[in-house]
Specification:
- The chain is of the alpha+beta class.
- It folds into two domains: about 40-535, no CATH class; about 545-645, Serum Albumin, Chain A, Domain 1.
- The protein has 14 helices and 18 strands.
- The strands form six sheets. The chain has a five-stranded mixed β-sheet. Strands 4, 5, 12 and 13 form a four-stranded mixed β-sheet that branches. A three-stranded antiparallel β-sheet has the order 16-15-17.
- Helix 12 crosses helix 13 (about 580-595) and helix 13 packs across helix 14 (about 610-645).
- The longest helix has about 40 residues, at about 610-645.
- It starts with about 35 loop residues before the first helix and ends with a helix.
- The protein binds a DNA duplex through helix 13.
- It is found in: Nucleus.
Amino acid sequence: MVVKRKLSCGSKGFDFPNIPKAPRSSRRKVSGKRADDDYESEICAIDLLASLAGKLLEESESSSTSTYAFEGDNLDHLGGVVKLKQELEDGYNKPCLSKFFDQGNPASKSTSENTSVTCLPFSSLENDCILEKTPVSDCKPACGLKSLVGEETCVVNEDAGSGQGEATGALKDPSHLHLQSPESVHLDGDVKLPPCTDQLPNDSFEGYGNHSKLVCRDDDENYCKYYKFSDKCKSYRPPFRVGNRRIMQSVKTKYGGRSISKLKCFEDTRTDGRLKALYRKRKLCYGYNPWKRETVHKKRRLSAKGLVVNYDGGLSSESVSNSPEKGESENGDFSAAKIGLLSKDSRVKFSIKSLRIPELVVEVPETATVGLLKRTVKEAVTALLGGGIRIGVLVQGKKVRDDNNTLSQTGLSCRENLGNLGFTLEPGLETLPVPLCSETPVFSMPTDSTKLSERSAASPSLDTRIPIPLQDEDPLINLGNSVENNHELVPHPSDISAADEQPSSDSRALVPVSALESEALALVPVNEKPKRTELSQRRTRRPFSVTEVEALVRAVEEVGTGRWRDVKLRSFENASHRTYVDLKDKWKTLVHTASISPQQRRGEPVPQDLLDRVLGAHRFWSQHQMKQNGKHQVATSTTMVVESGSSV
DNA sequence: GTTAGGG
DNA sequence: CCCTAAC
């Protein structure tokens, strides 16, 4: 028989010292581990560029060419380097990149000296991230890619992080990709740069042969650099090589002034021709700031149908003139001059003004804020790119399907009119619609997925439907990150798709969704499989109002702590955005807030009387729980005694 | 699915 | 607000 005693106590009268709850001490707190693929979506833009570079290179190669495997520090033999710099910060970036280079990284210097070749001394690689190494083609490197910052660096900017907004970062119309002769290498000025562009090191995106290097950086001055060779070269394995390519990764990160360097090796078995970005720890490359939010730079306008998002600028690359007389780096580790693999002729320069995702469909309610819109678009782009994207090449408006033809065979050479070269972004093969979030019911999709798929297959358009929470707050505002809010809804008289080679593909980048009473909307990317990163999108911070706090306090006073579900049902049943975990967390912070001096408190002040009630309830229910525990123990032993003695 | 606690 | 272990 279990002895049960009723606790007869009011909400006051107990003033026991706070006694910690029975800790679940046995459980180990495993530090949050990030999925390896967390990074992939975040550098998908790099992936994209690299894929593009690889594609271009592939097409420029004749089928028999690779000779050398880049191994270890044999950078002298690199056929080329493509370096991409990406400012990333947990998917978002900040404008300034200078620090890393200010610290004496020699790689940062070469580009600032009017050389079109950025030479990265291998010695610096230990701070870099070498992802892949493959044999370098010795074919006539018909082209190279060099990205531009200012004029030399490619910046894939997902977030300008600048008050100027509209900075670099988006993907633009493939038709804007241009081929240029070596003599006319430069950007069309279509790429906008963040305010700190001038600080950007000239650690630019360059390409020679098949070797590419990707550099990304987050706002904590964390850098990752990736080297990658065209997959095409996989078939040209040096005799001494066995097995898969080895991939080395060296990541240097810095947190709070501390640097962490890691060197890893991977085996890459991938054969899909895409760059493989290998991340093992998100935090290795990105400072962890759980409150950071991201945006995508974009133009947007309100149309009759709704918001239209136009991605503008940001993804650009430029070919490199690999003239031997150039590119001798200070350290001379690998330069075009030393490489000597690149012929002086038949080189084609590409100035990729921009890439644009032809069609991106997201759904937002009218009441969504700009910040949420940005977030949504960012998710859409991330999902899009992360799902695997293919590059199509258009010449004279016709799609070039034979990847084995050389550029000249395709009719592309520096002597030809290259104005009609275009690139398209196409959805990858994996295009199963997957909900990105499930907090709320998924909307009906404006059009059936079949049609979307058809349209996507028939054109370079990509549809990605993304739900966003319907909220009245701009997370960026809440974060005090006001720079992004300088963006305005800019009326955009022209249809963003007007210049598209697919005029039929309408421009509804954003389709208004009927307002739902629920505070969150669902999204369904139509063509891309989102990655876990998207799935675990952090919710928008929604500070508790005093009213909510009061309701919470009242509920806790009534049902006690430890019954958060009841609290939720009792006082927050209609607040769909408040989960019982939220309430529990809020209570936790309330107790803490009430325990500290008013001077230490932040945010919207909570009336002292409420805080007093918090402490009172906390004390009471803590004690109550203790008594419960003690009673339970007594009861247990009593039961045991009874059972053992009852012989029943 | 809830709860507790660390991050 | 997220994540995870323990229930």
